[in-house]
Specification:
OB fold (Dihydrolipoamide Acetyltransferase, E2P), five-stranded antiparallel β-sheet
């Protein structure tokens, strides 16, 4: 059976000026091999036919549909196959949807109804591959149902993942290893993160359902040192005087520093203890 979206080992049944027609071989009652019927063949374009290949040669190919909606084989390796998730770059955005680079001649179609946010050319998006109602391969940014909850990660493990959705009230949804479900809660989400960003995080909890709660910061004592150094550099852009204190609105602090209010207060406390700043009523001065 010819399966779209997957790699298969097929045999060359005949060669024409257009290329080689590939098909499966069925075993006869006598144990000999016979070619599948012509209806069960697929074209491999001549330019992809390996040198020296002939009738009877076996080739490992990927099956998809070309620009004319015909099933076709390619020897190329796509960046994503059915059952997988991958980060792909947006090649173009049109009135009917977006098109993604997945390593084949025909770009992968990302329909409007399968988009999250507004993709733009050059963006890198985490997508899954599916077969639409017309039998074509398409991409979807709605990847949550494709994510697993059986990772081996434990609390405090450091992980990498891709942000695939952001809800300001809930947080950032992350595909850990582009495979497992993860969530950075809104209260722990810093400033400037976007869909498609690749992030490093710490597992703070493995929930009963196997989903991972994540935090973008290191453990507090390590993160405090890094935040304090970042804050010192920020003083330079304000000519040594930060025009607000740790009593400022959390949104202002996040917008200006990229830190949560608690992280900002810890960093300020670290710098104050080290004698590097002075806190006044409405500002903080660097010594």
């Amino acid at each position: 059976m010819l399966e779209i979206g997957k790699r298969q080992t097929l045999q060359i049944m005949r060669i024409t000026p257009h290329g080689a027609y590939l098909g499966e071989c069925a075993e006869t009652k006598t144990g000999q091999m016979r070619a599948s019927q012509p209806a069960d063949t697929v074209l491999l374009p001549g330019k992809e036919l390996p040198e020296g290949a002939g009738v009877g040669s076996e080739l490992d190919v990927f099956l998809y549909k070309d620009s004319e909606d015909r099933l076709i084989a390619t020897a190329r390796e796509p960046k994503i196959k059915l059952g997988e998730l991958a980060v792909l770059e947006v090649k173009s955005v049109t009135s009917i949807g977006a098109f993604l680079d997945w390593g084949l001649e025909k770009d992968l179609f990302l329909p409007f109804k399968e988009q999250v946010g507004k993709p733009a050319s050059g963006m890198k998006l985490l997508v899954a591959l599916y077969v639409d109602k017309s039998g074509r391969l398409c991409g979807t940014m709605k990847v949550e149902k494709h994510l697993r909850t059986d990772s081996s990660y434990q609390k405090d493990a450091r992980v990498w993942g891709t942000i695939y959705s952001i809800n300001p009230r809930i947080g950032a949804f992350v595909a850990v290893d582009n495979r497992y479900f993860g969530l950075v809660q809104a209260k722990d989400l810093g400033f400037g993160y976007r869909i498609g960003d690749r992030i490093e995080a710490r597992v703070t909890q493995v929930r009963e359902d196997g989903k991972l709660n994540l935090n973008l910061n290191r453990k507090a004592y390590k993160q405090m040192e890094e935040d304090a150094e970042d804050l010192l550099q920020l003083f330079d852009s304000y000519e040594g005087v930060l025009p607000f204190t740790d009593k400022a609105d959390p949104e202002l602090i996040k917008a200006e520093t990229g830190m949560t209010k608690n992280a900002f207060k810890r960093a300020v406390g670290r710098l104050l203890k080290a004698g590097k700043i002075i806190i006044e009523d409405d500002c903080i001065r660097r010594k």
